[in-house]
Amino acid sequence: SDLQRSGPAAEALKGLERTYPVAMAHLQDDAMAVKVLSSNEVVATYTVDEHPMEIGVRLPSDYPLHGVEIRDLKRVGVSEAQWRAWLLAVQQLLSGRNGLILDALTLFKKNAEAKFQGYEGAECAICYSIISPTDQSLPTKPCRTCKHKFHGSCLFKWVSTSGASTCPLCRSIL
C-alpha cells in the first residue's frame, strides 16, 4: 500500500486516516484520489471526463522549519491564471494559516468541483468530451441559436472540414 511508506508526508496521511477517517473517505471518491509518492510527497489527482489534473504537496525534510512546496503537476480545463490562484490558495492555507494537508486537498477538490459543476451533459457535440483532447480546455464557444457550447479547436476543425460555417447541431450559421 502507498501508505506503508515512512516520512513526514506518509505520517501526515496516516495520521489523517486515523484521526479523520470520515473526512478522508469524503475526500477520496470516483473523481479524487490521494497517493503518497515518496516519504515526503503527496499527490492529489482530480479526474474530469477521464482527464486527470494533479497537484503535489511536498514536505521538506526539515518541516516545519521550511515551508511546504505545492507542485503544479498537470492542469486541464482551467485557465493558467485560475490554476495559479488555486495553487496559491492551497499554499496559503498550509503555510500562512497552519492548515492540515487534508484541508489543502479538500480546498483543491472544492475548487475543481465548483469549476466543473454544471458541465455534466454539456459535452462538446463534435468530440463528445467536456475536456478538449487538443488543448485541454472546456467548451466555451456557443452557437447563437441553440446555445450549445463547443471547444474552439473542435469548432475550427468542424468549419474547416465541413466546408460550411454552420452549427453541427442546429445547422444555423455560426
Structure notes:
The structure is a single chain. By secondary structure, this protein is α+β, with helices and mostly antiparallel strands. It has five helices and six strands, in the order ααββββααββα. A four-stranded antiparallel sheet has the order 1-2-3-4, covered by helices on one side. A two-stranded antiparallel sheet has the order 5-6. Strand 5 and strand 6 form a beta hairpin. Helix 1 (8-19) packs across helix 2 and helix 3 packs antiparallel against helix 4.
Summarize the structure.
This protein is 36% helix and 19% strand. The protein is built from five helices and six strands.
> What structural class results from the helix and strand content?
alpha+beta
What is the element string, with H for helices and E for strands? HHEEEEHHEEH
Q: Which radius of gyration do the C-alpha atoms yield?
A: 20 Å
Principal-axes geometry comes out as elongated
Beta-strand proportion = 15-25%
Report the uncertain regions: none
Query: How many strand units?
Result: 6
Mean of residue pLDDT values: 83
The profile of the biggest β sheet is: 4 strands, antiparallel
- The neighbouring-strand order within the major sheet is 1-2-3-4
Helix content: 25-40%
Number of helical runs? Answer: 5
Through-space gap between termini: 53 Å
